[in-house]
Every structure is written in C-alpha cells, then in structure tokens.
Amino acid sequence: MAAAKEHSNWSSKWTFIMAAVGSAVGLGNIWRFPYEAGQGGGGAFVLMYLGFVFLIGTPVLVAELSLGRRGQLSPIGSMLKIAKEEGRSSAWQLVGWSGVLGSFIVLSFYSVIGGWTLSYIIQSIIGAFDGITAEAAGALFGTMLASPVTMILWHAGFISLTMFIVAKGVEGGLEKAVTILMPALFILLIALVIYAAVAGDFAQAVSFLFKPDFSKVTFSVALEALGQSFFSLSLGLGSMMTYGSYLKKDTSVGKSAVIIASADTAVALLAGLAIFPLVFAYNLDLSSGPGLIFVTLPIAFGQMHFGVIFGALFFALLVIAAITSSISLLEPSVSYLQEKTGYTRKKAALSIGFGTFMLGILTVFSFNLLADFTFAGMTLFDLFDFLTNNLMMPLAGMFMALFMGWFILRKNLLEELAMTEKWFKLWYFLVRFVCPLAIGAVFVFLLYEKFVA
Ligand code: PHE
C-alpha cells in the first residue's frame, strides 16, 4: 500500500496524457520501428502494424489503463485485488508478474540503446559526423559496438538518469519536462522529414513504407508487427497499468487511449519518413537492424547546415523520449517492491535500477564478447528482445483482454469505463473476440509455419 500513498495522483488529465504519451513515444518509435519496417519488407509490415495498433493495441491499452485505475496498486497487486473482487482465481496475478518481470528485462536492454543515444550526442558535438560517408558512419557505430567498456559506461549513465527521476517521483520535474520536450521532439522530427524530402529519395521511401507487398508477409513478420505495436504502445509490461493506478476516476480512459495511440503512431511514421529517404539515397542496407538510425542519421547531420546543432539536439531529444519511456519501465517493479517491502521509493528505485544495470551488461556483451553465443540463431540481446517483445507482451495483452472481456461483470466495466453505449459496445466486442482471437491466431499460425509447413 505504501506505493499508493506515497505516490499520489497525476496533477491533471493533461499531465497524465503527456506522461503516457511520453511512455509510448520512445526508442520504439524512432529506433525500433524503422529497422523493424526495414527488415519486415516495408508497406505490408506498416499496414499490419497500423491494424494492430488500432484494432488490438488501443483496446488493450484501455484495458490495461483501467485495470490499473481500478486496482490502484502495482500490476501484481492490482490484478490480484481485482480478481478477488470479481471472485476469480488468484492465478490472474500472473499477468502482473509477467509485466513486472518483462519490464525489468526490457529496461535492461532499453538502457543499453539509450546509452548509444547518449554517446551520439557527444559524437555530434565533437563533429564526428562532419561530412561523414556511409562507410565511415557504419565504422563509427561498429567501433562503439566493439567496445564493452564504452557501452557499459553509457548504459550506466542512462540507467542512472532513469533511477534518479524515478527516485524523485514522477510528478514535479518530469511532468513539466515532458510537456515541453515532447512537442520539441515532434517539431525536430518534422524538420528532419523535410530535410529527408529534399536531400533523400522521398518517393522511394514513401512507396517502400506505404505500398504493401504481401509476398513478403510471413507469420513471423506478422508477429514482429504485433510485438512492435505492443512495444510502441508500452503494453503488456505493467507500465500503463502502473500509470493508470495514479489516475483519478474523472479521466476518460477511452479518449486518452485514442490520443496516446494516435500520437505514438504519428511519431513512428514520421521517423520512417525521416530515415528511409536517406537509406535509399545512400544505398544503405534496409535490413541492417538495430544500427539503422545510428548509421543513417549521422550522414544527414554531417551534410546539413548547422548539422552539429541539429544532430546534438536530435539525439538529446531522443534521449529524453527514451527516458520518459524508461521511467515507465522502472515503475512497475519499483511499485511492486515498495508494496511488498515498504521500501522508500528511493531505495526501491536504486535496487531495481542496479539489477537492470547488471542484466544489461549481457546485452552489451551480446554485441562484442558474446556475439557468437547464440540460441537458435539469436544473440542474447535478440533473445531478450524476442522473449519480451514477441512473447510476453502480446500474451499478457491477450490475457488482459480476456480478463476484462470475460471475467469481469459487464456492469462493473460500464461503471469503470464510463463510455457511451456505442463506444463501449465496440470496445467490448474488440476485447472479447478480436484481440484474443487475433493474437492467438498469430501464434498458432506461427507455430504452424515453423514446425509444420
Ligand atoms: N513504448 C516505449 C517505446 O516505444 C517502450 C516501452 C515499452 C515503454 C513497454 C514501457 C513499456 O520506446
């Protein structure tokens, strides 16, 4: 209970929305979405992604936020409490456990990538991108990946920032920072899109991103798109549930979810439009994976006027976008630890932060010392990413949808959500049938594709 008392409510609807958008908009949009789209073949991936965001992700977001608001506890505490109130099995708390564990794992690698971003602020300032060629940009990134010490230090820097903010509590400083910085990121991204339209091959990028080629679609690509939509909306890891637990009853969860999903999607699409024109103009490898933005963007910054400033500013804003997400990744386990042990917020944040730092070292090593250490072709980083993004997040989302759709009295839902009849019916249909069936189908077909076909 300590958490709920110590960590009161959002100061207004607006700050809640900004914080939730802050959680949703992050490395997932600007770093992950473009490389996933590149590897997934472009248009068909993007189309599936959009479908998943609005038909599955948004209703699950409503479910996750409202479970948190009703429970007013950590994800584990909330699931248990609501299951009890509804006379359901206490096994439903496993959904909360999966979130707490999953957010811990995601944070461990998220912080490593956050560290890359921090280091790129400095690279930009010292002029490392000046007139850089595509090869040199690749080499610059490669040098960083090859050095465990450099990466560990930046990772330590990023996780420390995250711990610091969470230890202080999210309201005061963070709420304010987010309201200024998120719009700034948006504006810079638009500036980059304009630059890409002028300097890059915009037409080819648009056709790559928006012309679906369904011959490239497999069920593993569909699962990637599903996982990406959950990752980007911060679903299934208890982050949104924890944010929902700080929410008062007078905020419309449905409307908030639509705003969050729309803003998040806009940022992802803009990132794609900023990056792919350069990828095509410079003949870069579309499927180069996690390094994509770290190799493409420096080329743009190295050539534009005031590139040093734009570059530093862009990576700085990206760090901020990442931090407003990473704090929401630290929250679920911190709120659980506080609830369980009565630790102060500071002590809980430091303990969990230290744990994720240690685990993150494995991600660091997966790019150098342990690069050859693979399971089923996956490095440790790939494995963590696959486990959380492709398995835990969609499955937890599916169970949240099932729980809300089938295990809570309709009357209680109506009261909690306070939606108009029409919207409620649509949402109810989506969580009862569409979400579980679609997520389930992706998994079943994937297994079929892998083992039978
Ligand atoms: N949505 C965040 C991003 O796009 C990542 C995240 C996932 C944050 C899950 C919280 C929970 O970067």
From TrEMBL:
<feature type="transmembrane region" description="Helical">
    <location>
        <begin position="14"/>
        <end position="31"/>
    </location>
</feature>
<dbReference type="InterPro" id="IPR000175">
    <property type="entry name" value="Na/ntran_symport"/>
</dbReference>
<feature type="transmembrane region" description="Helical">
    <location>
        <begin position="304"/>
        <end position="327"/>
    </location>
</feature>
<keyword id="KW-1133">Transmembrane helix</keyword>
<keyword id="KW-0812">Transmembrane</keyword>
<keyword id="KW-0472">Membrane</keyword>
<feature type="transmembrane region" description="Helical">
    <location>
        <begin position="43"/>
        <end position="63"/>
    </location>
</feature>
<feature type="transmembrane region" description="Helical">
    <location>
        <begin position="258"/>
        <end position="284"/>
    </location>
</feature>
<feature type="transmembrane region" description="Helical">
    <location>
        <begin position="429"/>
        <end position="448"/>
    </location>
</feature>
<feature type="transmembrane region" description="Helical">
    <location>
        <begin position="348"/>
        <end position="371"/>
    </location>
</feature>
<keyword id="KW-0813">Transport</keyword>
<protein>
    <submittedName>
        <fullName>Sodium-dependent transporter</fullName>
    </submittedName>
</protein>
<feature type="transmembrane region" description="Helical">
    <location>
        <begin position="177"/>
        <end position="197"/>
    </location>
</feature>
<dbReference type="InterPro" id="IPR047218">
    <property type="entry name" value="YocR/YhdH-like"/>
</dbReference>
<dbReference type="InterPro" id="IPR037272">
    <property type="entry name" value="SNS_sf"/>
</dbReference>
<feature type="transmembrane region" description="Helical">
    <location>
        <begin position="391"/>
        <end position="409"/>
    </location>
</feature>
<feature type="transmembrane region" description="Helical">
    <location>
        <begin position="94"/>
        <end position="113"/>
    </location>
</feature>
<dbReference type="Pfam" id="PF00209">
    <property type="entry name" value="SNF"/>
</dbReference>
<feature type="transmembrane region" description="Helical">
    <location>
        <begin position="217"/>
        <end position="237"/>
    </location>
</feature>
